Amino acid sequence: MKLNLQDKLGYQIQTKDKVTGKVKDFLFDEDQWKLRYIDVDLGGIFYEQRILIPVQLIHGNWKDKTFTIDLESKHLKSFPELDDHKTVSREFEAKIAEFFKIEQYWGSRFLPSAAPFTYTQSSGLLSSSFELDDRVPARKIKPDDINSSLRSFNEIEGYTFYAKNGKIGHLLDLIIESKNWSIISTVVDIDSISDKPPVIVATKWIEEISYIEKGISLSLKQSEVLSAPTFNVNDSINTKKVHQDFDFTGTKAK
Fold this sequence. Notes:
mainly beta, Photosynthetic Reaction Center, Chain H, domain 2, seven-stranded mixed sheet
């Protein structure tokens, strides 16, 4: 099922023993464009207990706007402390993997001795340019990136999109494939046309994200972005794969 992220912020999250909290953010791995953690607040009214839960331990009940965790709350009390003001490092991720007894996902290619890689976009017909695609966009791994490839959805929401010939819009949302938590598309809010609905652009067209300039560059012209499919959160999107129609929220389409 293909789902948008923006309206999942604030979803209730519940442990096996019915302790509840709220979804605060989604952290994704920029190298593979996959969600890795859900940032959860299990605290009360007067305090926060922020925990990064690996997505493989989480199940979504989209109709009830609820995530469930395959753990009891007592197991989370000794979770490594999460600092809002620091980047989540590989060292901290290793602590998370050890805490939850899960395999580290990054592997040896992130070691300094590993050769950087590039992805060369093959040519194709424009008619297939905007399909919901799970290929990884172009990106070079630099030594400075090795200690962290995690990015926050809250951080990049609102970033400016730059087409090959100029500014085109802002990041409104991300679309994931729920079966493997892959980010397959972005939702672009068009700036220059007031009545133009947002459009869906696959992540394969992203060339670079600048966290200093808060911008996202695309290997597309403005006209190509404007011709991309429009986004409506209530549109059914996976009619070819399931027997029922669902919208991006995960509820059954009317």
